[in-house]
Amino acid sequence: MIPTRLAGLLLLTSMLYSQPSARQVPIAPAESIQAAVDGNPPGTTFLIRTGVHRFQSVQPKASDTFVGEPGAILSGARELTGFQREGRWWVASVRVERIESKGECGPDSPGCTLPEDLFVDNVPRRRQVTLEGLARGGWYLDNGAGKAYLSEDPQGHRVEMSQTRYAFAGDAPNVTIRGLTIEKYAGPTGLGAIHGGLPAPGGRRSQNWTVEDNEIRWNHDVGIWVGQGMRVLKNRLHHNGHMGVGGTGRHLVVDGNEIAYNNYAGYDYHWAAGGAKFVLSEDLQIRNNYVHHNEGPGLWADIDCDNVLFEHNRTNDNKVAGIFFEISFGAIIRDNVIHNDGGNPGRNGMDQGAGILLNTSSNAEIYRNDIRNCVNGIVGIQSDRGTSRWTNRTYVLKNMYVHDNTIAQQSGFAAGIRSAPVYAPAVFSEWNNRFENNAYELRDGSGRFFFWDNKPRTGAEWKSSGHQ
Questions:
Q1: What span, in angstroms and rounded, lies between the C-alpha atoms of 241 and 186?
Q2: Could you tell me whether strands 337-339 and 77-79 are parallel, antiparallel, or unpaired per DSSP bridges?
Q3: Residue 395 and residue 325: Cα distance in Å, rounded?
Q4: Residue 415 maps to a domain
Q5: Are residues 331 and 190 part of one domain?
Q6: Within a domain: residue 38?
Q7: Same structural domain for residues 266 and 316?
Q8: What is the pLDDT of residues 379-438, one digit of tens each?
Q9: CATH number, domain containing residue 413
Q10: Which of 215, 281, 303, 324 has its Cα between 20 and 30 A from that of 309?
């Protein structure tokens, strides 16, 4: 006879093991993911089958999980066929409602704010804003006539045009998106292919999404636009038209991603473009990412970001800066490897970037970083940026503590601060900005590789000013 206590344990164990597993719904490429979401309760797991799932836009329910089989692709593009020769161009019929979003474009990319892109064999073509502009190559969309124009013969090539605005968006909490390839979504500025909030401007934000192990590529705007508490983990965010990841939020984690070759649409990277940019964000952890070859800063926190950690990142060959902290408050920047970052073509001054660049920001500790062959090493800039409209704090370069870094420079400035005259000499003498115990590897030990009191300085002059 089984004792009563043991019998109870056996019954409990049997009940636990007999419980059905979490609901899992498979979705084939021809099926609607949104219809499956609508037809199932919150907390369902959706298995996205191998193949190309076109024109999917999904607003999840709370605690939904979306998992891709190997080779599962969500595409926001349609294939264009039936091209006919018209004069100098090849033309296909297509109907798209015209949407033009905000943003500033680079001089060679006047159509950067137009969200549709055209791909020939998975290579985006530069969009032109007039038919006459096609003489420079690329493509043109005449919305009124419903025609897409190419400057090259597409015969024998696969031509696609992005049209769907987003893959995932919404304010449901605790959503997980894993193992998918998400590509060719036509998001206007500020709408990510994965968008952590409702897609309408000013829409409610999501809470605590996890976006993990995805490949997110060839989307016109941002690959991932964050929501509150989002965890962006181990994704490949590459060749997106504006940025790999960005937005506004609290308690964000961006960890273990590759962020590369973003801003193909040609946004002006002085306005906002590149690898990753966060604004008005608090408690942001950016760790263990490989960030390279972005047409703009690699990792950028701008406008009232507070309590930001940049740690164990590797950056190289990004424009303006590897790590950029601008008009914000409170950062730790440590243990990063930063090589060949910064600068604009033909422009290499203090304000053209650095491996680590602080612009009119306070309370930043920068230590144990390895910085080599950037346009400048670690530099700060104090300019007149006014007062925060959100927190009423004045933007100033105070408490910049730079210590125990290794900085190797063949040119430019290894370390220093430049200030607008109205703020000097306080920025140099009163605001607790200091460089201590750094190791410099310079092409010429007698050269002027430092900048202090608004003048280039030799190493001896740098040390006599109290720095190391």
A1: 10
A2: unpaired
A3: 12
A4: yes
A5: yes
A6: no
A7: yes
A8: 999 999 999 999 999 999 999 999 999 999 999 999 999 999 999 999 999 999 999 999
A9: 2.160.20.10
A10: 215
